[in-house]
Structure formats: structure tokens, C-alpha cells
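Most newcomers find our protein records easier to grasp once they have seen one. To make this concrete, we reproduce a full record directly below:

…
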Amino acid sequence: MDSNKPQTLPYTTRLQRIYRAFGFTKGYNFVLWFLFGGAFLAFTLSRFIYLDFDGRLCPREPPTNRPYGSRGAVPGECYYYRRGVGKAGIIMHLAGILPAAVLVVFQFLPVIRHRALIVHRINGYIVLLLSTVGMIGVFMIARHTFGGTLEMQTVTGAASVLFVTCMLLSYINIKKLQLEQYRAWMIRGWIIAAHVVTMRLIGIIMAQITSRMDPYYTTTPCAVLDSMFYHNKPAVEALYPDCIGFYTGDTPDQRVIIKGTSGGRPDEIAASLNSAFGASAWLALLIHIIAAELYLRLTSAESERLRKVSYRWQQNAGLTAQRLGDAEPWACPDDDQTLNGDGESFR
């Protein structure tokens, strides 16, 4: 045996076979796709049950053994979701964004792009179309979602505008054969979209912490409380005597103060979560924006490779620009070399 010959560890070879089977050339790219794409896919699949609006998302009857509980939306949201605009908005959002989120995980899978190019192209257009439907739904429900606080409305609008902008820029760039920019804006957009997963985790942790310290209080309309308790008038009046005027019709817009705790009652759970969701959403959005830029910096070699491929394609199509604005003129390095992936298409 030649002692100078480097030995390949068996597990390294197996790992390479695994990630190369998915089309990845770098192991760390496969690990990142598997971990974060897998988590995003698992979360998305778990939400599909809420397409059953009356059965799962907003059941008309209280769940078994939880007479005042909720197993779908945040307690109180269904009061608004059962109305015309709210119901149309939440159904459009779920029916659009959930399938798009599933499909986009496979859009980032290189083996599909390499071996089934037409599938990759069609899938990309479907993702954009479904995302548009989902975002229209978001704007229809933003007024009351997750408590409807001003900070929650603001972060929902900001994240939605950022996502739509990223999708628009990715579409423009792929049409101009700017592959590295298409990749960057797609990654930014969907990492931003995934902030809703982190928001929920942070929000639940915040709600648990604040309910055990000095809890926050929120004001809630008696009409929403009536919906939370499935129109159980005696229960609502016993807990909140001020709501008697709501039931008699003397004060139809009566509101009461609710202490946010992590107890078993839906009103207290809603108060605790709604007071935390605004801050948790902003924090999650910031984390995901930073994460997107960090990932793009860590995979700069892939961006540079795609930039070279783009340059060749743009030359062939007569679209190449040597400079943009006051940037320095750019020419493709090692122009005589064949680039890996030169025959791929991302459109």
C-alpha cells in the first residue's frame, strides 16, 4: 500500500454521493438546504390542515374536552375571518402561499434544474403566481391578524412589501439573464417569508416570559370575546360583567381589559400572544434579513460562477452591459475557460 496516497474516509464518500445525488457540488450547501428547507417544508405541510376553514381553522363548535379552547387561529381572529373580506383573505392567503412554499423548496434543488429544466421553469412561474395570490390575501387580513396591533400591521406590511419586491426583482433579473441576481433575490424573498416561523417561536417564548413576570394587558371588544367563547353568554358575563351591555345592546362596542397569561382560557392566551407578536415579528424579520445577506456572502463563489455564466448568455443574446451607473467596467475573467453549469438555464 502506498502510504503517501491520501485515503478517502468511507463516510465522506457516502456523504458526497448523497448530496451529489441532489445536484449539489458543495456539502455545506446541501446541509443548509436540508436543515432550513426541511424545517420550512415541515412547517408549511403542518399548516395545510387549516385549509379546512370550518373544521380546523375556525371550527364552529369548541374542540372536544376544550370547551373554550382553540386549535386553529389565534383566539379571537376567527371573529374577523368569518366575515366576507376576512374569510376571502385568509383562504386566498393559505391557498396561495402554502403550495408556493412547498414548491419553492424544490425550486432550490439543483438536480431538478439540471435534469428537468422545463419542470424548473414551470415550477418557478407557478411559485410566482401562487405567491401573488397569497400576498393579496395578506393585505386583506392584515388589519386584524395576530391581534391587529399597529406594530403588527406595520411589520406585516413591511415584510409583505419586501417579499413582493424581491419576487419582482427576481423575475426581472431572470428575464435579463442575470442569474446571480435572480438567485440572490429569490433567496432574500423566501428567507424573509420564512420569518413567520421564527416569529411564532419568539412570540411564544416572549408570551411565556411576560406572563410569569409583570404581565401585559390588552383591550378586547366584547364581540370578539363572545366569538372566543363560542357565544357562551353566561361564561363571558361571569368573567367580564362590563360585557352585559354588549349583550343587551346598550353598548355594542364595549371593550374590556384582559390580563395576558399563559393559562388555559382563550382570552388570556390571546392577550398574552397578541402583546408579544408585534415585537417578535420585528425581531424575526431583522434576523431573517441578516441571515439572507450572511448566506449570500458565505456562498459568494456560487454567485461569481453564475455571474460568469450570465455574462456568456448575455453576450450571445446581445444584452451585455459593461457597466451599470458609475460602476467600474466589468469583463468576464478566464473568458476562454468552460464554466461549470454553462449549459444550465434558470428561466
